[in-house]
What does this fold into?
Amino acid sequence: MNVGLALGSGSSRGWAHIGIIRALSDIGIEPGIICGTSIGALVGASHVSDKLEKLEEWVGSLTRFKIARFFEINTRLNGFVKKERFQDFLKEYVANDDAIIENLAKQYASVATDLESGREMWLTKGSLIEAVWSSVSLPGLFPAIRNNGKWLVDGGLVNPVPVSVCRALGADIVIAVNLNGDIVGKHFDKPEDTIKKENGVVSKITDWVIDNTGSVFSTNRIKDQPPSLFESIAGSVNIIQDRITRNRIAGDPPDILLSPKLSHIGLLEFYRGKEAIREGNDCVRRMLSEIKHAIDAA
It folds into this structure.
């Protein structure tokens, strides 16, 4: 039986995929097909490249300051992420620069969006790193990526949870991970004293980056304060992905749907990886009986 794992988009909440993969392995489930969108494509690529343990260690070491080093104020306005630093990260923790999808031990695919036509693109051949780059290119943070003659951006705009891709690649049973099930509107408001406490431990450099990018790292704000630029972007992305995910899953439901509870983690709070990984693991434990039943019935 060929198990497919569809890893959904969700930016920093995507570190939960690490906990899910680990927990599934602990109960003897090793998917032969890994399909991912955005952060799901990144974590999935790390798994098929045997770099997941190294990625998990790095995620566990993240701080707000370390994340700040990935961002820059860009006068070209084509993205806030430092491409060179992100490229080095991909090579170190996700896949070797010469990794080719066709040569992997497991089947792999990432999902991206053709910026010109709006079409969904499945990347199943060629450079693994380029496939990841194309899928994670969230508009506003990353520039569009040129791949096979097309300008590609984040796959979450068209297929946030790639169940259909797993089935097309031959999966007999599909386990899907939806990171967006409980997020719309729930991450905006936190108590003012919590916000002050969080801001008090941030370095001057990180404060500068946050102040100049409209609160890059989190969507925390005082009640009744107008949303910042990035809060508006984050909220819009959340709404789009939630609505698309609902429609796609209704039309092509997975055999098992895992929905970790991650609404407390903001779109770009990558430094909260330990929390996300733990919730991914816990999500599998909560669904254990249903997972075993679906596997046994297949």
